[in-house]
Amino acid sequence: MSSEVVVILTALNLEYAAVRERLTDLRVHRHPAGTRFEVGRLGHRGCRVALGLVGKGNNPAAVLAERAMAEFSPAAVLFVGVAGALWPDIGLGDVVVASKVYAYHGGTGEDDGLKARPHAWEIAHGAGQLAQHLSRTGDWARGLGPGDVPQVHFGAIAAGEVVQDSAVSDQARWLRQHYNDALAIEMEAAGVAQAAHLNRALPVVVVRGISDRADGTKTSTDGQNWQSRAVAHAAAFAVALAQELADDATTENPAPLRRDGRNTGMTTYNTANGNARIGVQAGQIHGNVTVGAEPRDRPVDLAAALAELRSQLKQAHRDGHLDEVTYAAAETELDAAGDCLREDTPRSRSTLVVTLKRLGGLVADVAELATRLAALTALAKELS
């Protein structure tokens, strides 16, 4: 079970509901400014997902994407919803994954007309590779009905500030002239891409189901229920990709391998000559350090240690050292740690270390808990 969080954002309630129905164990997470997210899991053992509704437009999408990134420190952000197709070979119900996002309303007005000033963001290489692989395998579509498997297209998406529903308007001509490679058009991707860019290029993937052709027939296609069908396809692809991104983040930076093939950290060698004495020499140290501890003469029962830690978490919450939101998040991480321990595979043992680190970050302000987590994390590393 992955302990990483993936943020999924939508603009419309229809889109939100399509993602929400794929999540379990949902809990409301309230931001201090009033924004409400729901946090759950994909199935019973999948990654954690923080789901949010941003409304229409690039500006609110940027603000609430930034808020979600700061609140959850996610492995990735996905924006999921519907869009209008700009090319005839993009079918209704197809899925478009943005390899590039254009903010197409940027420009400068001059005597001889409006000149484009493109602003664009490309998908992160690793996220793009995962999305391409997922499309090739077709595993993401297993839950869809027979004969209801759409094509997945990768290409540019144009994000503006108006609903585009004409093939002959000035805006349609502007798009064909200056953004001719765009496959689809919508209203939020540029805001989310900008927020991710300002967060150390956090991986962001825009996944859109095609519900209309942006050519004046939107009322007709909406009446034929293409919005619901398109967003169901986009949600299916997005949640499968969310799991892949979370798994990839968990194993992204494995520790160096020893000659016997086991993971290990940096090894530091000390040499003393004459009367010189060695105190403590270390390479990179993260978290709490205990010097001079007595050697363990018996194996430590990690399961029992986690149970004891749960009791200490509850007591810290009752004593007011952990607020409600932090306590709920810590409980979720502790549940994930228990699942990893019971699974007891090389992958789950590696994930256990990541989970305990995240838990340690949540309780870092409570000295006793932080110290215990540092010790448990060290033990878990020995198991991995």
Strand order of the largest sheet: 5-11-10-6-12
Q: What is the number of helices?
A: 11
| Low-confidence region ranges | 253-272, 274-278, 283-287, 290-299
Tell me which oligomeric state these chains represent.
Answer: single chain
Q: Could you tell me the number of beta strands?
A: 12
Strand percentage lies at 15-25%
Named CATH topology of the largest domain: Rossmann fold
Rg, rounded, reads 25 Å
CATH class of the largest domain: Alpha Beta
CATH architecture classification of the largest domain:
3-Layer(aba) Sandwich
One letter per element, helices H and strands E, the order comes to: EHEEEHEEEEEHEHEHEHHHHHH
Q: Main β-sheet, in a few words?
A: 5 strands, mixed, barrel
- The general outline is elongated
CATH superfamily name of the largest domain? Nucleoside phosphorylase domain
Give the termini distance in whole angstroms.
15 Å
Broad structural category = alpha/beta
Mean pLDDT: 85
What helical percentage do the residues reach? 40-55%
